[in-house]
């Protein structure tokens, strides 16, 4: 029999690779037939292979009344012997390989295996650690990958729908090849580069990198705008119009920098 | 009993309609990072910033190309790429429907051309990056056009630049000048 327990490990350079379990053709055919016309509930068994528990919390979020996965008959069960779907979370640590395989063996055929979260898909941020195999697909055949760190409950429901063949996948691989004459314009070419850098730096210092960038773009658009009113007046009005005192404070500081640059 | 039914009716249905109706992600939701390859200058800032190495870059000197790739399966949606991108080519979107049947569909790639040095002919940096730097320098200097000499210097690799400088210095015969000025 095809037992994953005593299959030999292979090596790739210095790195050992665990054997991937294969499914017999007959089981694969059974699974295809089942997925073609699934008219019953799908029970889910959760296998935590060394996750941080973030994914588990989102799975529980999915079965709460707000997202209510039981609408579709998806129910979390406490034993792999009841399961139709095995949900693997975590980067598959060395010590969790055997328990993961045992639950895979224990689940009745045909079963669907879902890799859940960034760790389950590829090992995520732990992909190059010494103690992980880096992904569920390294040990068992996986049907659906749900990326996310962690996947939100809505993403989880979408993943289940893809696994059960109710919805199609949206993501497709593609390769962009640079065309002749492709070039990137400098943003805000009318604003002096040094002033733009000073504004960006100040906005990011005050509001953090991400929001700072959004705020400084808004401000630079104001500077760029072609209007009859002179610049200092326009800026003053823009700052005064801010309802949020935090935004007003940040834009006030940016205005100070511009005024200094004009005056100096 | 009646009271309970009334309460139920008053509370209404808390369950979201997704997947039968579109699910509205909240503001600043960190979803799939979308890469606009046309705006990308292949500077590799995102590659260095990416904590789980989901974004990867490989330079093929023989073909003269640099391949940028992202693995959504490894991405932790932290937004560091967006923060570090100088041109705003990559940014998080509210897109969350990322589940796939095959792992290959999680990877997106972009191939960029490398610029060949005008002196030695070897590839040294992505063409778009060099062009972008040229534009920034021109903007800093308040110019609109680049002279032929500036163009030449811009498209020369650092090694050749150093060599050319040394050659120029030796041609100027600094040692001889220093002796005469004594």
TrEMBL record, chain A:
Keywords: 4Fe-4S, Cell membrane, Iron, Iron-sulfur, Membrane, Metal-binding, NAD. Residues 52-160 form the NADH:ubiquinone oxidoreductase-like 20kDa subunit domain. One of its GO terms (molecular function) is 4 iron, 4 sulfur cluster binding. Pfam families: Oxidored_q6 (PF01058). Its cofactor is [4Fe-4S] cluster. Coiled coil: none annotated. InterPro entries: Complex_I_20kDa-like, NADH_UbQ_OxRdtase-like_20kDa, NADH_UQ_OxRdtase_20Kd_su. PANTHER family: FORMATE HYDROGENLYASE SUBUNIT 7-RELATED, HYDROGENASE-4 COMPONENT I. Belongs to the complex I 20 kDa subunit family. This is [NiFe]-hydrogenase III apoprotein small subunit.
TrEMBL record, chain B:
GO terms for biological process: aerobic respiration. InterPro entries: 4Fe4S_Fe-S-bd, 4Fe4S_Fe_S_CS, NADH_quinone_OxRdtase_chainI. Residues 31-60, 66-95 form the 4Fe-4S ferredoxin-type domain. Pfam families: Fer4_7 (PF12838). GO terms for cellular component: membrane. Keywords: 4Fe-4S, Iron, Iron-sulfur, Metal-binding, Repeat, Ubiquinone. PROSITE patterns: 4FE4S_FER_1, 4FE4S_FER_2. GO terms for molecular function: 4 iron, 4 sulfur cluster binding; metal ion binding; NADH dehydrogenase activity. Gene3D superfamilies: 3.30.70.3270. PANTHER family: FORMATE HYDROGENLYASE SUBUNIT 6-RELATED, NADH DEHYDROGENASE UBIQUINONE IRON-SULFUR PROTEIN 8, MITOCHONDRIAL. This is Hydrogenase-4 component H. The lineage of its organism: Bacteria, Pseudomonadati, Pseudomonadota, Alphaproteobacteria, Hyphomicrobiales.
